[in-house]
């Protein structure tokens, strides 16, 4: 007899099913595709193996990770072998090629090679979002639930972090575009931020929420970006 039926074997469905099974539920995962994993699976063509989705992950190794997937893997007693990217890749613009490094200082150094003034503006943009990241990282993702019963839990365990978040409420509800407009005039850097946002959310800066990029900037520099060995 089954307790829970999970529809879809993407990373969300598999994570939910794994946690339910970990805590004693009998779970069945239903998937219409012949291969489980959704955007997290791989496929082979003519001897080559391809990822069907994102290949960039932060915090899959090490302790005290803020990555929700790593937290779930820890909970169910699983680990992944990973290798770090260095650099993550290269962006090709008419003005030149930009090497994308995880380390924030190295990132700005590469940026200054193309636009020294823009690099200084980017540092202001980055600092504004990193202040938000610093407040957010004190509230583990697994503690954020939609039911009202989470309120006593958050107040009991994370009151100092919630206090820090109050100062950042305006930017929490804002877009990256608004932060960019307040700090960045350099047209090349604005294009770079739009590209970073698009690769992260599928939208340019105006359509991307500020907390998403704040967390990306902070974790990218803190934990680095990794690739799971084998895809």
What does this structure look like?
The structure is a single chain. The chain is an alpha+beta fold. The chain is built from nine helices and nine strands. It folds into two domains: 1-53, no CATH class; 59-228, no CATH class. It has a three-stranded antiparallel β-sheet. Helix 3 runs antiparallel to helix 4 and helix 4 (116-136) crosses helix 9 (210-223). The protein starts with a strand and ends with a strand. The model has no long low-confidence stretch (mean pLDDT 87).
Topology:
Blueprint: E1 4-7, H1 11-22, E2 27-30, E3 42-45, E4 48-51, E5 57-58, H2 68-75, E6 82-84, E7 89-93, E8 96-100, H3 104-114, H4 116-136, H5 150-167, H6 169-172, H7 176-183, H8 187-201, H9 210-223, E9 225-228
Parallel strand pairs: 1-2
Antiparallel strand pairs: 3-4, 5-9, 6-9, 7-8
In short:
The protein has helices at residues 11-22, 68-75, 104-114, 116-136, 150-167, 169-172, 176-183, 187-201, 210-223, and strands at 4-7, 27-30, 42-45, 48-51, 57-58, 82-84, 89-93, 96-100, 225-228. With 231 residues, the protein is α+β, with helices and mostly antiparallel strands.
């Amino acid at each position: 007899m089954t307790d829970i039926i999970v529809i879809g074997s993407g990373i969300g469905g598999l994570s939910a099913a794994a946690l339910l099974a970990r805590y004693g539920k009998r779970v069945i995962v239903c998937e219409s595709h012949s291969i489980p994993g959704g955007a997290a699976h791989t496929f082979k063509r003519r001897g080559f193996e391809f990822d069907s989705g994102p290949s960039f992950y932060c915090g899959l190794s090490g302790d005290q990770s803020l990555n929700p997937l790593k937290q779930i893997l820890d909970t169910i007693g699983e680990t992944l072998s990973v290798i770090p990217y260095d650099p993550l890749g290269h962006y090709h613009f008419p003005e030149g090629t930009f090497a994308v490094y995880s380390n924030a200082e190295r990132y700005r150094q590469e940026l200054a090679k193309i636009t020294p003034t823009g690099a200084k503006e980017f540092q202001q943009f980055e600092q504004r979002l990193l202040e938000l990241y610093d407040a957010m990282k004190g509230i583990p993702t697994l503690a954020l639930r939609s039911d009202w019963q989470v309120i006593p839990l958050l107040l009991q365990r994370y009151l100092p972090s919630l206090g820090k978040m109050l100062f950042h409420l305006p930017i929490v509800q804002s877009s990256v575009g608004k932060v960019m407009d307040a700090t960045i005039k350099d047209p090349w850097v604005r294009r770079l931020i739009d590209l970073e946002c698009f690769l992260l959310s599928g939208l340019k800066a105006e359509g991307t929420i500020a907390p998403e990029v704040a967390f990306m900037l902070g974790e990218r520099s803190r934990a680095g970006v990794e690739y799971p060995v084998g895809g």
